[in-house]
Each structure stands twice: as structure tokens, then as C-alpha cells.
Design a protein that fits this description.
Blueprint: H1 2-28, H2 35-41, H3 49-53, H4 57-81, H5 89-106, H6 113-120, H7 124-135, H8 138-150, H9 156-183, H10 192-208
Helix pairs in contact: 1-2, 1-6, 4-5, 4-7, 4-8, 5-8, 5-10, 6-9, 9-10
């Protein structure tokens, strides 16, 4: 019984640390926040609590990614399974966008995950942590394969460039809406669902835009 109680308390502590870290990372940036600050914000008297429960800051970021991305990928898998051979670019882009916006909507308000992702995306090493966690998902692999089958024939360098643009558009549009909701300021769209619709339209336009010959 004591062992179970200790394990339960450890899970509660881990959850508090994750929430505190996510908020501080979102508001201040990952490297501007110390493990001690995270521990204090989580209400832990032991300043080494982050290291004890998670290890390094990179390990903490990985834990945050796993907590959210697991649920996002479950949604993505359901959406991909619902598609058939007639699915077009918009349908596949929807499988990229809507799992994230639906997840953010499910969290209530305020949320910090989208802004935390935007902060992580500015650091190459931490960006790789998120990439490793997400690109290992079979649902995401199937989505990218389906999207690539529908895309126009683009020069390889343009394909890579537009893929990066699409990722940035998703991350930062979600982060800006999340920030506006937290600050109780006006948003461009009335809901996360309609935000996804606007993103899908924009990304389809990005992928299908003409390519100006270089030179």
C-alpha cells in the first residue's frame, strides 16, 4: 500500500512539474527557465525535483512532447483511417492540421502547448526531440505519404522549402491564437476548428502555388 501511495504521489508531482515547465517555457523560452524555477512553480520544496523525476532539461522537453503528441497521433490515426483513394490535398493537409487544433481545443483555456512548441522550434537540438517523437508515428508517416502522392511535381528544393513553411505556419498560427486566448484579446477565427480551416486553405495554396524559375 505504501509503495502504491508513493508511486501515486510521484505521478502527481511529475504532472505538476510538466504543467509548470510547459507554462514557463511558453511564456519565457526554454533556456531562459532554470530547473529550479520549474520546481518552485510546481510547488516543490526540493529544487532538484526536476532532475530527480525527469533528468536533464532535454528529457523534460521530451516528456512534454510525449504527453501531447501521443494524443494528437491517436486522433491523426483515426482521421487517416477514414480516408480513401479519392482523398485530395486538402484532406491530407487536414490530417496534419486538425489533430493539433482539436487537441488544443480539448485542453480548455488557457493552454501553453502551442507556445511551448513555438519556443522549442527555435532551438535545433530541441526541435530534433519533437521531430523524433512525432516522425516515429505511423499515422504521420501515412499522412505525409498520402500528401506527397497528391502534390504537383515540384523541384526537390522547393518541396523541402514548402514543407518547412507549412510546419512554421501551423506552429506559429496555433501559438498566436493560443496567446490571444490567454490574453483575452481578439482572434482572427472564432474557434480552433475554423482556425484549422483557414490553415488548411493557406497550406493547400502554399503547396499548389506556381514555382518561379530561378535565375
Amino acid at each position: 500500500m505504501r509503495g502504491a501511495a508513493r508511486a501515486g504521489q510521484a505521478e502527481v508531482t511529475r504532472a505538476r512539474i510538466l504543467r509548470a515547465a510547459e507554462r514557463l517555457f511558453a511564456e519565457q523560452g526554454v533556456y531562459a527557465v532554470s530547473n529550479r524555477q520549474v520546481s518552485e512553480a510546481a510547488g516543490q520544496g526540493n529544487n532538484a525535483a526536476v532532475g530527480y523525476h525527469f533528468g536533464t532539461k532535454t528529457d523534460l522537453v521530451r516528456a512534454l512532447a510525449r504527453e501531447h503528441l501521443g494524443r494528437i497521433e491517436e486522433d491523426r490515426a483515426r482521421r487517416v483511417d477514414a480516408l480513401d483513394a479519392t482523398a485530395d490535398i486538402a484532406a491530407w493537409v487536414g490530417c496534419l492540421v486538425r489533430p493539433t487544433t482539436a487537441h488544443l481545443a480539448s485542453l480548455g483555456s488557457p493552454t501553453w502547448f502551442a507556445r511551448c512548441c513555438a519556443q522549442v522550434m527555435t532551438d535545433p537540438a530541441l526541435q530534433d526531440v519533437f521531430a523524433e517523437e512525432s516522425l516515429g508515428s505511423p499515422a504521420l508517416v501515412r499522412t505525409l505519404e498520402g500528401l506527397n502522392r497528391c502534390l504537383p511535381d515540384l523541384p526537390p528544393e522547393v518541396h523541402v522549402e514548402r514543407g518547412a513553411m507549412a510546419r512554421q505556419l501551423i506552429v506559429h498560427t496555433c501559438a498566436e491564437r493560443e496567446r490571444a486566448l490567454a490574453d483575452h484579446t481578439a482572434t482572427a477565427r472564432s474557434s480552433w476548428h475554423t482556425t484549422a480551416t483557414g490553415l488548411i486553405d493557406a497550406i493547400v495554396g502554399l503547396w499548389t502555388a506556381p514555382v518561379t524559375p530561378s535565375g
